Amino acid sequence: MPDSTSLKARHSLAGTGAAAHLTRAQKAAIIVRFLLNEGAEVPLTDLPEGLQAHLTTQMGAMRYVNRATLAEVVAEFAQELEGMGLTFPRGVAGALSALDGRISPHTAARLRKEAGVREVGDPWDQVRKAAVGTLLEMMTHESTEVAAVILSKLDIGRAAELLGNLPGDLARRITYAVSQTGSVSPEAVDRIGLSLAAQLLDVPEVAFAQGAVERVGAILNSSPAAIRDNVLTGLDETDQDFAALVRRAIFTFAHIPERVKPTDIPRVAREVDQPLLVTALAGATADDLAPVAAFILDNMGKRMAEALRDEMTERGRVRLRDAEEAMTAVVNAVRKLEAAGEITLITPAAEDEDA
Prior knowledge:
The chain is 67% helix and 1% strand. It is mostly helical. It has four domains: 4-83, no CATH class; 93-117, no CATH class; 122-201, Annexin V, domain 1 (Orthogonal Bundle); 251-354, Annexin V, domain 1 (Orthogonal Bundle), CATH 1.10.220.30.
């Protein structure tokens, strides 16, 4: 049977200096209740589950507090806040949130994985955003029960799309397993979501944003023709398949007629300084580049084309080095306009490249 002191603390926390006889748990319950009454947002979900349960139990055991005791507890709480100089986030999860954007994503992912810390928010949000192919691979390699949970957590349309892409026998087994998911606890579903989200995040970090074909193609685009031809010949001898892919990725001055739409030529010409354009065209009047110069001039305004031809005549013979630099400037202008979305290049057909 409780003594009179505990009954007073439980039922009527009153009297001068009554706050001194309260436990820290009781004081915490009073502060939380006071803040909630005042309409404040109290993020209790940030507390460990044990503390949340203890606080809830303590609040359920208390009845009422008089004004004098409330004032003492609030004053003590305010005094503690004023004396607090600095607080640190609790655990690795809090530290990662505080340092978000200030440490590298690679380091953050490694620390989160080592500590078993989840990403912020619902892990199933990441699963729902995954590509259909990725989800199909997951469901194929996971157990039927886990696949049933995945199917149950997706939107109806997405779930139907996945089911339609699964082998018939597997689709039937997973569909039946869905009927058995009623007894799965929320904690189990959360753990499955965390595991799947971790798989989605566990993607090897790559050092280069572009693939090898794109990088080699970009380098050869800016290389002199002699070096480009020599490298491609060497690639043909080493790896014909890779060489074929690189050839498709290359875009040079010679490719303009087959890759640039005639209606885009005036826009490209405006992007290049006229002296450079004249040099490029004057250097392309002979050999296999003559059709390129003709294509550019034929698809410009008549007056502009005539003016350029006059300047080409005045320019006379052009050194190979100067011509290649000017042609590179024209190619760079095309690439710049394409990247900005102002023009669209014609994609070469695979059979044409292989011919």
